Every structure is written in structure tokens, then in C-alpha cells.
């Protein structure tokens, strides 16, 4: 992958960082007696194109770069960052972070080695390097298709955002690793209007790849999907309220599992004993149908990584196997605490933040049921087709999710579309209530971003059709479901 | 002005001049710099000390009403050259938008008119990492010591931050602003009878350190808020009056804010589009957007386009009086800017709120609760169940059952639903406990009836 965007710290850049220089900075960071130090150099180039009211209304580009230095002493972390790569600035950051310790350090030079890394996001046509006019025409196609799809379409917004994140990590344990992480996201949102009633619909996708994304997914396809959704919602009626059976559609619904169980399996909460799953490895925590993995290896996946932000290569980590809790997602610090190897889940939003255990692509693996048969088994319930987002209280697993597209299931068939549906429940409870899993496991198109402690990172999700025996549906029609 | 702001002014001025030389009709640059120190303790031990400085330049240019925005944190000569070159290249790629343009020059404010809003505490930088850790430690200790049922902690964090920014435009505007902010948050964890963990939190935040609530008081309040959640259960699905405390109420008011911004109105992505001069809330509801409150978190002397800030009464006694507009949305709607433009660090401009406040009523919280025979007192909400286009609202909620005017038992895992339009019209009591911790703020208020989904 070559690009006209190149980090100043790259070899051949304006202020190249080699192992020798990194080693000197690490020694500086440990001069007060820290146990561990790492350097995180980052250069992020990004651009966005916003198509609105039938024209490319605005285009933008940005560059954010800097160095984050972390020093650990016991459970305490010193962190400092600077936004330029002058020797004075880098030295200042190393000294500030060093201050978490207050003793004497070693003068021994730190030897750095570069491990071989996998190549999980080869890019054919790096979006950032392709003329803006190509992206304008993709957006124009989406806009045209949405307007042509139905006369009730009154507004169309389409956008492309693209990013190339170049990182260099050097650690006092001897790792010296570079990676370049592309990210592309396309999105369209439409508003339809009929008899004074308005509704919106949206669709999008992407991943760690270039414009070749559009070889497999056309802008027209997304436009039609957004319009379909908005039109369906025009006829939506009030949702029932109360506990009932819920069926999750494959793919996108994985976001519910991400929130409901994924966060609770991040090792920092378990190290601190603040997760509901603390101390429960080997216990039955979900229905025996459920196997949950965090898989950073998916080719071009939005959450995929060659290397995490602490220099470790992530792979596929089994979190829950046939309902039994097998492991947590680890960063370096928690792996040390648990006496395990790091799972490569140490991620950070940028050089401005310290790493924490985070998910990559979190998947509930498929089962054996025919999806049709799953629907047929429901007398009265809710079918969740698209999610708007959700939130979890990690200490106990309580979650809330909003549906952007949901339907009533009556006698095994989808009937009325529903509006304003929330699913509210408890992650561990819901995982025990999983009673059927479809054989149609699917991975969501790349749209999801996960927030934790104010840090956002791109993630992937996936699941098959899932039947849950009992979830509280937050609608407005009391008594209509029982 | 002091030296740091002079340097920012100089940088922004050079960027504007360069963009003009290269062919931009309009160029507007914002230059910023900031620093912060954050200290976190957990279970009485230091967990994180973070110190950093940041700086950036954002640029918006127009050529024949074609618009582009760029930003960079690379302030090298090459970095700033690229900032300008990229902006012009992208502007030529954009298509002419007949509503694009700078604000009417006659509306631009002069630096001498800018109010001194007392947003900067020069003593704040004296708090070093040791002092910051001490404040966090005292806050957490007060929570841990409050009760043996507080068995764990997500920690306590003290943060201080300072920032300066300038805006320079080719229309002749130049303005500087600076501010500080200090906060302390404490997050205890308690264990319930069935072993279920309950996390709670409380926080204080102010522009000036001497106005920040004491660490022990913050910790004690955090403990109280965590302990009172123990034993929470669901509720049967029903319709009940709902009382929102200031934290939950702020989330509701945030939704109103998102629906009165000019961008949402001309896009028709707000249920309030077309509702000007009509009743949108009960007559107890008056909401103002006031950027000129001294020492307040959302205050600003001038808006993101250089217009002089002014107080806007958005909803007066339930009637929608105005939207909040920048000059673009004002042109789209054939109205006048309300000086509500805000400019992000990345250069983009849009209408936004400043201090957006539901005005206090005259009853105390006790009287408000006392006059509620049976209802739900909501202290926390979860999830994102709001559709701005239709106003449909449904979110997860936790709080307490009100019986005969008293808070009786804790409730969780329920959802509350009602379109926002109806919610505002059904506000039948507003209390007097307004606190200025946040830019969007409400006192406690009551909605006469909402649908609650539980068991």
C-alpha cells in the first residue's frame, strides 16, 4: 500500500523514527524506574464527502498526528502526548509520562525487534489517493437512485468518509511494529413524506478496504435499502409493551451481543472485579447453543487488525463456548494480571488515549435451525431487523437497544412494522434465554463504532437469526402482547 | 491579549491570507491550543496520570459558493501549506451551493464589543499531578468510607483543562476566547443482596476551581446515589406520571436542542419544522439559549461566524418563538441568524446551542414530589430511542417509585415512552433546583403521564 499520505515518522518521512531513536526515548521514559513503557506514534489522514440536496455540498480533509508515551509502575499509568515530532517535544512527553514512578531507572539499552505481521487488509484502490471526482460520482449515483426509487422521497443525504491510520509502536519489552490501517465508510439517509407524515431510513457499509468495496455493494443497492426502510416505517404502528419472545435478524443484530455480553468480557472490568462475569471462567453463562468469539482476522473487516495498539498480533479469541465462559479479551496489563498471554485486544482511539481491552469483530456463531422455522415457532413476538444503537451498564449487564426497523410476529408471520421499539434487558439473562439459533450466520456490513470511556473505535459484529424466549419490549401499547 | 493568543491570531491570519492569495473568495480560519491534566485513582491507589498539550488549525474556504473544510495538527510549514492547498482543491470539487456564503459583514462584531464572561481561571494551572491525585483520592475515599455496602469502585477522576481559540475571517472579523474547566467524578460500585453489582456516580464541574464542590461532598453524594439503587426491581407495565431529575431531564432537553437547530429544520429532520409560533409545550415551559451567562460552561462572547452573542428565548410559555440559526440555515429558511453558529475544530460550521436552559419554576422538589400520588422518579436513562423526524421517544430508565408523595423503592429495567411533542405539552410541574454544571440544564420537572414498559 503506497499513498501520497505518509507519516513523518515513516522511513523516508521528514522525521523518520528508527529502532535506535525509539530505544533512546524508551530509556528516557523509564528513567524514574517505571516497570514498562511504550511509544505510540500515529498519523491519521482522513477525508469526507457530503452529498446533500443533489450536489456535493461540502468536502473536507484532515490530518491528526502525534506521539503518546505510556509508563506503567505497578497498576499506575503515566501518560503524556505531544502533537509534533521534534526531538524536544518527544523528550518532553517521555519525561512527563516517566513521572508516574519516582525512583531510579536502568541505563541498559532496550533492544527492539520487528515481528512478522499478517496482512488482513490489503487494499486495491486506497480511497484517499483516488481523485475526489470518483467519490462524487458514487454519491451522485446513490442520490439519483434514491430519488428514482419512490416519489415520496423528499430528502437524500449521502456521504463517504475515508481514513488511513499509520502507526508505529515501540515497547520496552522489545517490540517495534508498524502498521497502516485503512478505513472506508459509505452511508445514505433518506426522508420520505406522505400525507404530512415523515419517516427516515438509512443504509451503509464499508470496512478496512478501498473503493473496491463498491465492486460488491453498489451505491444504488444502499439507496434502495434506505428508501425501503423509510417507506415501511411510514406504516409503522405503536409497539407493544411488556415481556415477549424476540427474534433477531442475522448480521446487524450482533450489536446487541456486542453490548449485552461483549463489554462484560473485556478483561479490565474483570481485573477490577466490576463486571458481572468476574471470576466465572468455566461456568455456564449462556445457553449451550451459544459460542461467542472475538475475531480480528476477518479479511478487510471494520474491526480487523494486524496488530493491536500495544504491538501484539490479535487472532480469534473464544469467549464463550457452548455456553461456558472460556476467556476474556485482554490488553497487556490485564493479561499480566491474569497470568495469560495478551489476546491482542489492546486498542486506543488515538495517540491521545491510553489503550484498554476492546472488541474487534465480535461474533455469535451460527446454529442449526432453519430461519423460517424459527419465525414459525413464534406465536406473538417482535422481529428485530435493524438496530439504531444501544448501551450497557457493564457492572450488571443491563442494556437498552433501539430498533430502527422492527415487526410484530403473529402466528409465525411478520405482520405490522412497529415504531419506537426498545429492547431492554440484562445481557447474561438474555444469553440464557437464547432458545434457537439459525444456520444463517452473517457479518454486518462495516458501520459500527464502539464507545468506551470516551474513546471510539471501529468494530465489526455478526450473528445468525436468534430467538430469545423473553425480553422486555418498550412500546406504548400495554396489554396488546401476552 | 497574552502571548499564546497572539501566536494563534498570527497563525490564523497567515492561513487566511494564503487561502485568499490562492484564489479563495472566502477564507475563515480557527486556531486552537489546549492543555489538560487528568488524575485517576481506584481503590485508593493512583491509576492514571495524563498530561498533554494539543493544537490545531481548521479552515473553511469558498470559491464561487463551492465549500470545503480542512484541519490539521501538523503546524509545520508543509503541514499548513497542505491545509490550504487541500481546501482549495476540495472546494473546486464541490458544487456551487447558492445559499453558501459568509455572514452579512454588517453583522460582524468588533472585538471591543465582546463581553468579558469570566470563563478563565488563571490559578487552575497551579494544580499539579500530586494535587490532582489528592483531590481524586479524597473524593473516592468519601464514597468508599460511606458504607460497607460500597465494595468496589470504578475510580475517581479529577481533570483540569484550559484552552484558547481564535477566529479570523476574510470578512474582517478577528476574535479570541479562552476558558478553563475543572471536574471531579466519583464512581462507586455496591453489591446487592443477590450479588448483582450496582454502579453509581456523581460529578461536579466548574469553570473556576474555587466554585467546584468539595471532593468529600462529591464522594458522599456518589455513595448516596449508588446505595439508593440497591434492591431495584422492574415495574408492571402501566401509564404513570414521570418526574425527571436534573440529570435525566438534561437528556430530554438535549433532544429538544437537537430539534430546534437550523440544520435540522431546513432538512425537515425535526418534528418541530414548520411549528414556529405554535404551542409546542405546556405553558410552564420556557427555554432560553443564553451564551452570555458569566462563568457558565456554554458561554461565548461571539458565535462561530463572528456575530455578537445574544440571548434567544426559544420557547416562551410553551410557544415556539425561534429556531437557533447560523447564517446558512437562516438563508435556507429566509430568516435572520440568531448568532448561534458554532465552528468545530475541524472547520465545519453549524447552528448549535450555548447555555440551553429550561427556566426554573417556583415549587421545591419536595413539594413537586409531595404532590405526586403515584409515579416514577427517573434518575437515569439508557439507550438512544429517539427519532427526531417524528419525535418518537422511548428509552430505558431507572429511578424510584413515588407513592403518596414519597420515593419508596428503586426501579430499573423499564422503558418510558411518549412522543417528545406530547411529553413537553404534558409538563405539569417545574421545580426550582436548577444547577449550572452543564451547558444544557434543567430543574426537576414532571410529565403528567407516560407509558412505562416493564414486566
Q: What's the topology here?
A:
The complex is a heterodimer of chains A (482) and B (455).
Chain A: H1 19-29, E1 36-52, E2 55-73, E3 76-82, H2 87-98, H3 132-149, E4 153-171, E5 176-194, E6 197-207, H4 213-216, H5 219-234, E7 237-238, E8 240-248, H6 254-262, H7 267-271, E9 292-295, E10 316-321, E11 324-325, H8 332-338, E12 346-347, E13 356-357, E14 361-364, H9 371-376, E15 380-393, E16 398-410, E17 413-419, E18 422-426, H10 427-432, E19 434-437, E20 442-443, E21 449-452, E22 455-458, E23 460-463, E24 466-474, E25 477-478
Chain B: H1 3-21, E1 26-42, E2 45-63, E3 66-72, H2 77-93, H3 129-144, E4 150-169, E5 174-191, E6 197-199, E7 202-206, H4 215-227, E8 238-244, H5 246-260, H6 262-266, E9 287-289, E10 312-316, E11 319-320, H7 327-333, E12 341-343, E13 349-351, E14 356-358, H8 365-370, E15 374-382, E16 386-387, E17 392-403, E18 406-417, H9 420-425, E19 427-430, E20 440-441, E21 445-453
Parallel strand pairs in B: 8-15, 14-20
Antiparallel strand pairs in B: 1-2, 1-4, 2-3, 4-5, 5-6, 5-7, 8-21, 9-10, 9-14, 10-11, 12-13, 15-17, 16-17, 17-18, 18-21, 19-21
Helix pairs in contact in B: 3-4
